[in-house]
Amino acid sequence: MVAFGGGHGLAAALAAWRRITPDLTAVVTVADDGGSSGRIRREMPVLPPGDLRMALTALAGDDADTRRMAALLQHRLGGSGVLAGHPVGNLVLTGLVEMHGGDTVRALDDVCRLLGARGRVLPMADVPLDLVAQVESTDPDDPARARTIRGQVAIATTPGRVREILLSPADPPVHPDVLDAIATADVVSLGPGSWYTSVLPHLLVPRLRDALAASRARVVVVLNLEPQPGETDGFSPEEHLFVLQSHLGGVALHTVIADEASVVDRRGLLSAVRECGAELVLAPVAEDRGVPRHDPVRLAGALREALRSVVAARQGMEIGERVPQPLVPGPVREGDEGNAAHGAW
Questions:
Q1: 0.90 exceeded by the pTM?
Q2: Which of 4, 164, 270, 287 can bridge 202 by disulfide, Cβ–Cβ 3.0-4.6 Å?
Q3: pLDDT of 84-109, one tens digit each?
Q4: Distance CA 95, CA 138 (A)
């Protein structure tokens, strides 16, 4: 399977997927321009390493030695000098890329071996990307209601609603291994994560979008638990899906997974999912601690149920896509209560 995304959202997805399959490829955004990654990409001819590092550590092996190594790569240097704030892993990746003559994929494979990674990490493009957004102010008295904002950090921190997102360069080169992974995938996942700056950018790369449109893989979308300030203020789950649908460009959508406690209008979301030709899986996938974070074990359980038809096809069995009773109730019908129990609809 292939997981698209970046940052904490992709790390959460990988923590769930690794419980299901070892044949896992993370395709990671390379548009970060803030913090350590921003400093490195301004000073060195390399891809921003931060999101790549997070994906690598999310896939690290479970033995004590590799976990300690993963913790080291995540460790941020202290002090007040020029190295302050840099995660060790960002510097290690940058050094390996330089040692390999600019070959980022070879450097990532080296770190995967070092970590005993359960899968592989690849960049979504072979060159650093910049995001350009049209952001609409929420202030009715603002004379300039729409602004063009450049850069991931600026977009995420500009008050207002993102109305459009573009890439620069618009048609970046993509490593052949990424295209091969998509072509041979049984499953592709998008989300969770920053919708406009981590999830949608993958669909803006023409080579990636074309490969996804040609793929026979089942496409699964994991919706966010709540809107993100500066990107999707006030967005409902169905609005997230509408925006995604407008960027699919021929890419089929098969399953949408949402946290049952995060959905207010279940009928509205179900209608939006059906418009996409997909099925909806509602399940408790958030942590119990009150923080908006996906629980890897719960999310893995929802993903397993969503993919039963893929497993069945591989085993030569005929099993319907709906999960049988009594695990979940049937689809919501007219007259049913809006707060029906969770399940696959």
A1: no
A2: 4
A3: 999 999 999 999 999 999 999 999 99
A4: 43
